[in-house]
Amino acid sequence: MASKTVEEVLFPGIDVRVERVVDSSDALLVEAVSTSGPGRCPGCRKQARPMHSSYQRTLDERPVGSRPVVVRLRVRRYFCDRRSCSRRTFVEQVRGLSERHRRSSTGLTGWLRSIAVELGGRPAARLCRQLRVAAGRTRLLRLLTAPPVPDRAPRVLGVDEFAFRKGCTYGTVLVDVEAGRVVDVLPDRTSETFAAWLADHPGAEIICRDRATAYTKAAKQAAPDALEVADRWHLLQNLSAAVEKTCHQHRNCLRKHAEEDTATEAPELSPMLLPPAKLPRTQIIERTRHRYEDIHRLLDKHWTISAIARGSV
């Protein structure tokens, strides 16, 4: 079976040529050169021919085992000779490896984005430290992009408030209940903002909400044909609050009834005495037991506590 080249192992399907691999104490350093054809101008999309210069970029790559990988990639800068284009020069981007204004490879950026989506900020940063990837919570959160908002509202629309800052600033989150994903986030929890969103995004047949009057007013104004239902969480919360209020109002009757039941109950059985649990005989337990015995033996000889504490035991 033919052995694979370094390019096939580190950069499969990417137009680069590895010139040297240096195994340093900190990371695995890979020096590579782009072998793709002339790039296209990002402004006018015309393929460039004359080359301006070349320079070396440093990119963080996905680790190999427990070793971090740093890629020093030599790329070319081209002239854009189209007069109508505002760009004079531009740098080529290696597909699958480099992106504009990024110091990490495309593969590593995809890793970090997936971790940030699943874990968020600080938990994702802790996982990255375990994976030997340098990425703080701020960098991870910047990789998150808001999904596009659909033109129409989902059939079953869930709406609830949340706190940007508890007690000060609140917003509204809109959820597709059937798909289980967030549709949009509104900057406040007023009926005017929610009504404007419903007017711009028709199609909601069922609105699942809490009992806030602002959302009720917006639904009746912008989606009068939609069926309004209460979600399960708020139903259970309202039920528990009603039960707690009722028990608090009738606590005297409940206490009296509980005392009557206690008086008519059969005599309690004596509790079963279990033998005391025996600790395993470990070295530290034996040492502690011996020290306890030595201290009490000295106390019987009328030693003072300060003398025992000074290390006479």
Give a quick rundown of the structure.
This protein is an alpha/beta fold and 313 residues long.
Order of helices and strands: HEEEEEHHHEEEHEHEHHHH
- C-alpha Rg (nearest Å): 35 Å
Share in helix: 25-40%
Low-confidence stretches: none
Q: Tally of extended strands?
A: 10
Structural category is: alpha/beta
Topology:
Elements: H1 6-10, E1 16-23, E2 28-34, E3 51-64, E4 67-79, E5 89-91, H2 106-119, H3 122-130, H4 137-142, E6 156-165, E7 169-176, E8 181-186, H5 191-200, E9 206-209, H6 213-222, E10 227-230, H7 232-249, H8 251-264, H9 283-300, H10 305-312
Parallel strand pairs: 2-4, 6-9, 9-10
Antiparallel strand pairs: 1-2, 3-4, 4-5, 6-7, 7-8
Helix pairs in contact: 2-3, 5-6
Characterise the protein shown here.
The radius of gyration is 35 Å and the shape is flat. The strands form two sheets. Strands 1, 2, 3, 4 and 5 form a five-stranded mixed β-sheet that branches. Strands 8-7-6-9-10 form a five-stranded mixed β-sheet. It has ten helices and ten strands. Strand 7 and strand 8 form a beta hairpin. The model has no long low-confidence stretch (mean pLDDT 84). The chain is of the alpha/beta class. The termini are far apart. The protein has helices spanning 6-10, 106-119, 122-130, 137-142, 191-200, 213-222, 232-249, 251-264, 283-300, 305-312, and strands spanning 16-23, 28-34, 51-64, 67-79, 89-91, 156-165, 169-176, 181-186, 206-209, 227-230.
